[in-house]
């Protein structure tokens, strides 16, 4: 196969995949109708409604897994911030690092408990860039063209972070290495792989899946799958 044919096949597969997920979103597939829980509720079950526990870690993306060697790495944090940041890999690694353990919940109905992460806490990053008063949403931009949006208050949480290691090893390329966003209290599509830029904005700006029928917010305990 020539490179062009390769790209065409990839494009077709990708278009099919996107069309199928858009259809699921329209049909409201995978909704169980279980009682919504609440983030603030200490008694909420660990496993969100409609989820099944898995031990492996499935890979989901648009079929393109960008190669971002540390030498080419750059992360920009900009938009409505007092002190924009543009970091190379050394600059990112020089930020204070944290370790955390959290569960991940994918809208395609699997959850995985007790993931051990290393990276930079979202709050550490936010304290450095200092969001302006009119910053209300965050848009994550990735090397594969993917985007996803969250309210600033969902990124400004103790368990939200930028992650470069999982289970003590550098995050693999298929899972978004060298660096991905991680917002464990929302469905995993809000955790952008191959992170390139974090933009703070005033008005909500739906991302890739949010424009294709996924819920704008994505709280697993409220089963905010499709919106
Ligand atoms: N850059 C990028 N990030 C992405 C995606 C993507 O296609 N590109 N897919 C999202 C979706 S839909 C899911 S479910 C998770 C999957 O992460 P995983 O492959 O590490 O399980 O990544 C999210 N982040
Ligand atoms: Mo997903």
TrEMBL record:
Q: Sorted alphabetically, which InterPro entries does this protein's record hold?
A: OxRdtase_Mopterin-bd_dom, OxRdtase_Mopterin-bd_sf
| Gene3D superfamilies xref list | Oxidoreductase, molybdopterin-binding domain
Coiled-coil positions: none
Residue span, Oxidoreductase molybdopterin-binding domain:
66-209
Q: Where is this region: Disordered?
A: 28-48
Pfam families from the xrefs? Oxidored_molyb
Tell me which domain of life the UniProt entry assigns to the organism this sequence originates from. Bacteria
Alphabetized PANTHER family for the sequence: OXIDOREDUCTASE MOLYBDOPTERIN-BINDING DOMAIN-CONTAINING PROTEIN (PTHR43032:SF4), PROTEIN-METHIONINE-SULFOXIDE REDUCTASE (PTHR43032)
In Swiss-Prot or TrEMBL terms, this protein is called Sulfite oxidase-like oxidoreductase
Give the species this sequence originates from: Roseomonas acroporae
